[in-house]
Specification:
The protein is an alpha/beta fold and 297 residues long. The protein has a 6-stranded parallel sheet, sandwiched between helices. The longest helix has 30 residues. The radius of gyration is 20 Å and the shape is globular.
Length: 297
């Protein structure tokens, strides 16, 4: 495969919590950006940053050097790429950033082979604020020859890119993302449960923070998430219903590998209960509300 030139145009398919910030940073970096979202009104604000919003995925990818997908799950990604297929050029580089899981990635890789696309498995670590500030961590695996195409894309959306493999089909980046997400989700639950127990026992949360301060049990993410919950700010940086989806992908990946993930499985159930109580579109720290049968204190 001949080494390719850096992209000057990119199609972003999916402009939700993550995709909108990514599209803005791509445009601000000087790239020609076309964006599509299933609900067009959610993408329209991007026009103020120079992003061209399209009606269909095919319009977005037509003539683009690179395609970036950042959708809800693997099924949505495959459906969207099938809609884009008539306008995809052979050899187009596809940076697949959706947290799709191992089973879905196999289907996406098959689609890439069938349509002669150069697939890069490139999930990102980070939530809304890092996406908006271009500080995501990009985890990537893909052929050396096509990496230059996505250099300007990854540089615009992330602070760092970690290449972990030369074949997207081996899913090295997706595997690493699932391990990282298992830690993030379990720390979130640990924070939510500890705060719920403190409320139930009448313990001042500040006393907890003072007790762990500066020691090995202290954790900046725990402090940020508990502060968010205590001030009643549940604007999602990562939504509860999406966290449940990711938790179930992690459990399934463990099952395939012969690894039981009891904590993550229980965490998925906590997210399901929180979603059932009306917190699905709120930040995933709403796991807190799964600790109470009635109204949370």
């Amino acid at each position: 495969m001949t080494e390719q030139l850096p992209a000057t145009s990119v199609a972003v398919l999916g402009t939700g919590i993550m995709g909108s910030g990514m599209a803005r940073n791509l445009a601000r970096s000087g790239l020609d950006v076309r964006a599509w979202n299933r609900t067009r009104s959610k993408a329209e604000p991007l026009t103020a940053d120079g992003v061209r919003v399209t009606d269909t995925p095919a319009e977005a990818v037509d003539g683009a050097d690179a395609v970036l997908t950042i959708l809800y799950d693997g099924a949505a990604t495959l459906e969207t790429m099938r809609q884009a297929a008539p306008a995809l050029r052979p050899g187009t580089v596809w940076a697949q950033a959706t947290t799709a899981g191992l089973d879905a990635l196999e289907s996406l890789a098959a689609f890439a082979r069938e349509n002669d696309l150069a697939l890069i498995d490139s999930p990102v670590l980070g939530t809304k604020q890092p996406a908006e500030s271009g500080q995501l961590l990009v985890l990537a695996s893909g052929p050396n020859a096509v990496r230059p195409v996505v250099w300007p894309v990854f540089d615009a959306i992330g602070s760092r890119t970690v290449w972990v493999g030369e074949s997207a089909e081996e899913a090295a980046a997706t595997r690493l993302k699932l391990v990282l997400n298992s830690w993030v989700l379990n720390v979130t639950h640990g924070t939510a449960e500890a705060l719920a127990l403190a409320k139930g026992l009448g313990v001042d949360w500040q006393h907890f923070l003072d007790a762990v301060e500066g020691g090995p049990l202290d954790n900046g993410y725990m402090r940020a998430k508990s502060a968010q919950l205590l001030r009643g700010d549940l604007e999602p940086s990562f939504a509860t219903k999406t966290a449940e989806k990711d938790a179930r992908l992690i459990v399934e990946a463990g099952r395939r590998a012969g690894v039981r993930l009891d904590v993550t499985a229980a965490g998925a159930e906590r997210f399901r209960r929180a979603t059932g109580a009306g917190h699905g579109d709120e930040d995933m720290v709403a796991s807190y509300f799964a600790s109470f049968d009635g109204e949370a204190p």
